[in-house]
Write a structure and sequence with these properties.
Strand content: under 5%
Number of helices: 4
Distance between the termini: 45 Å
Number of strands: 0
Largest sheet: none
Structural class: mainly alpha
Shape: flat
Order of helices and strands: HHHH
Length: 94
């Protein structure tokens, strides 16, 4: 699992005054722990972690989805605006 992008972390803190890096770290920790459980054998534990994460979002980051969507759209726009570089690979000379 990759950590949240630094831009997303900053945007979340700007959108949610009082949100700390420790809060975001805890959110990431819950998600990382979730990924270690087997869905077939540990579904109940996964549901518990999902509830904890949902409660955290509701309490600390209610605009999480909006912020992530705006950043994703901004990133897609930047990708479209970036010049396309054409690369040609030539076989080595015999």
């Amino acid at each position: 699992m990759e950590p949240l992008h630094p831009d997303l972390r900053e945007a979340l803190k700007q959108a949610h005054p009082g949100l700390t890096d420790q809060d975001i770290d805890r959110f990431e920790e819950l998600l990382a722990r979730r990924m270690t459980y087997d869905p077939e054998r540990e579904a109940e534990r996964i549901q518990e972690l999902d509830r904890d994460r949902a409660e955290m979002v509701k309490r600390l980051m209610p605009r999480y989805a909006q912020v992530a969507q705006v950043l994703a759209a901004r990133g897609a726009h930047q990708d479209q605006a970036a010049p396309k570089v054409r690369t040609q690979i030539k076989p080595p000379d015999p």
